[in-house]
């Protein structure tokens, strides 16, 4: 994995620093996912990779700096689960649902996200702005794609307000099912998410959206 | 509030102990909701009510003992949001959705629950068993009530497997919308939850359940 991100031919000491930085970020991602941001101390994070809290501060400035690096890394990795092209209208939603397969294969990334999101219900949490921006982006993208599906005639007409309600509920279904799965529910997460989406699409097509 | 729970006429020193215990539980509920279980130290919890960590240990045995008291208190308080009678079939779901109004008025209880649930995606979390039991109870109750609605002819026939899928998705919608609301989304949580439920009921009645 580290090999993907370092540039071949980098000189020894610099390369070693980059790898060390990535080790620390991976440790912090695990620890924040398991213990939350406030529960995950620099000492615990450092212990897992044999580094002192002082070394971590040297690399990232502060615990908040390390969190920023962890979230940036999460975003890059989670992005690998998305399609590289930009499917139109309804196809976008089918591609979005396939992301749950990526989540099932990368449980740690999902656990980190859900833990940071729930942590950020605390208005003073340092991840709150990142999480809020993430939700705003997902809402904005999905809203635009459902509007596109309406405009292309793939589904029946809907008001902006109906579109927002449909999208918020779809996002809620995904988050909620992921939480149940992480808590050990015996479900086929991608299959159940797909069933909900196909049901929603049938309703959208026949003009029976949530209203 | 404390007056609700202490018995009138209790003798001074005993009563003082009960009130002190309740103050500590309230402080711990706030702190665990804000910082998570691992992030909320006995010192932080004690500081908010002018008690030392040693006093907290004296009352609750350990931090895990205090968590158990917090979860028990949460369950008692969340129970006040439920109807005291036991509505049949579909009426049960309409009553369940009204619980979101209670949640909006008691944000701290909701924040504590969502934080503990996300924390408990860590298999070693001391709240995990409580949270898993809670989900199993809600799933079991809702499944029985939707089966009852089928048997009473309120909705079209559904297989057990369809009923479980419908209920898991309903629970996901509630958790997911609550998370969005806690993260600051500009939504009318009870209204949006009600819209989803009424849509689901219409689908159940016309035999268009998720399948």
Automatic annotation (TrEMBL), chains A, B:
Superkingdom of origin: Bacteria
Annotated region of DNA binding: 41-60
Alphabetical UniProt keywords: DNA-binding, Repressor, Transcription, Transcription regulation
Domain HTH tetR-type: 18-78
Alphabetical list of InterPro entries matching this protein: BetI_C, DNA-bd_HTH_TetR-type_CS, Homeodomain-like_sf, HTH-type_TetR-like_transc_reg, HTH_TetR, Tet_transcr_reg_TetR-rel_C_sf
GO function term, MF aspect, one: transcription cis-regulatory region binding
Transcription keyword on record: yes
Protein name: TetR family transcriptional regulator
Lineage of origin: Bacteria, Bacillati, Actinomycetota, Actinomycetes, Propionibacteriales
């Amino acid at each position: 994995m580290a090999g993907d991100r370092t540039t071949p031919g980098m000189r020894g000491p610099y390369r070693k620093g980059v790898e060390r930085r990535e080790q620390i970020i991976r440790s912090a991602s695990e620890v924040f996912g398991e213990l939350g941001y406030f529960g995950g101390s620099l000492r615990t994070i450092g212990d897992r990779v044999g580094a002192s809290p002082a070394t971590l501060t040297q690399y990232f400035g502060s615990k908040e700096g390390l969190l920023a690096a962890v979230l940036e890394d999460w975003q890059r990795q989670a992005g690998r689960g998305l399609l590289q092209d930009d499917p139109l209208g309804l196809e976008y939603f089918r591609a979005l649902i396939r992301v749950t397969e990526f989540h099932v294969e990368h449980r740690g990334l999902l656990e980190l996200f859900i833990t940071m999101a729930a942590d950020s219900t605390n208005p003073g949490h340092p991840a709150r702005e990142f999480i809020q921006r993430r939700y705003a982006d997902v809402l904005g993208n999905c809203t635009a794609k459902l509007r596109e599906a309406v405009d292309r005639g793939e589904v029946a007409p809907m008001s902006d307000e109906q579109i927002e309600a449909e999208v918020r509920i779809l996002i809620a279904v995904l988050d909620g099912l992921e939480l149940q799965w992480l808590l050990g529910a015996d479900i086929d997460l991608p299959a159940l998410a797909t069933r909900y989406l196909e049901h929603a699409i049938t309703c959208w097509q026949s003009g029976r959206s949530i209203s």
